[in-house]
């Protein structure tokens, strides 16, 4: 997935400017930045929910504009930031929606077994017959993750776009979600995820794109991008980055004295 000099403007207000990104399959990109930096807007452009005002986005070397939605749905899956569903669908029905691009009127046995497999994978098979609106926020998020996986499960060189995939999840499920994202990446998928927790980004991403006020502030490996200086400038928080002997990655700790009490 390649983004070349993309700008996105709404009512004369530039939300994104000069965005460049080249994400390959077999790579996990984390998009980080303060609230309002433009992360979700970029994810919407990557998923074709929005169209750039100028610049170009290509997917597998073809202009994203030239894909129809079904074709795109068979190659990439999106977990959006907001997934409000109040209708009385069961968990199974929601996850089966991930298979819609692959069947006409009736799901095949294969579709149904992929759905079960993804429900197992995300640890929610016991919710299969529950009504979706009765689940907690974190549980609903796991259902949406299972739907996203079900959509992409048999796609070769597919892309998974995750906008805050762990929002509402407890610590264990956050870890499991990032492990799963890495597992998918190792299977040959491309993964691009908006990540708020910089320690998760540091631990799990291959590459990081840091946005500030709609522009790229830094891009590169976690160690290159997640420096104390960059974090201070992009988030307004001083941090200490420590290197414990018993972890293979550094740990970012906010300096309490630098955070203003609201
Ligand atoms: N349709 C719109 N019209 C005007 N402003 C918009 C529109 N959509 C988004 N914005 C603004 O663009 C900026 C970027 O929004 P975006 O949702 O991409 O931020 P974000 O980095 O994902 O933030 P968060 O971390 O809070 O989810 C915000 O200031 C938002 O208010």
UniProtKB/TrEMBL annotation:
MF terms from GO for this chain are:
ATP binding; ATP hydrolysis activity
CDD domains the UniProt entry points to: ABC_Iron-Siderophores_B12_Hemin
Q: Which InterPro entries match?
A: AAA+_ATPase (IPR003593), ABC_transporter-like_ATP-bd (IPR003439), ABC_transporter-like_CS (IPR017871), P-loop_NTPase (IPR027417)
Protein keywords: ATP-binding, Nucleotide-binding, Translocase, Transport
What positions belong to coiled-coil segments? none
What PROSITE patterns does this protein's entry cite?
Answer: ABC_TRANSPORTER_1 (PS00211), ABC_TRANSPORTER_2 (PS50893)
Q: Gene3D superfamilies in the record, alphabetically?
A: P-loop containing nucleotide triphosphate hydrolases
What's one Pfam family here?
ABC_tran
Instruction: Give start and end of each ABC transporter domain.
Output: 1-238
- Tell me the domain of life: Bacteria
Q: Briefly, what is this protein's role?
A: Part of the ABC transporter complex HmuTUV involved in hemin import. Responsible for energy coupling to the transport system.
Name the NCBIfam families for this protein: PRK13548.1
Name of the protein in its database record: Iron complex transport system ATP-binding protein
Please report the organism this UniProt entry assigns to the protein.
Answer: Dyadobacter koreensis
Lineage of producing organism: Bacteria, Pseudomonadati, Bacteroidota, Cytophagia, Cytophagales
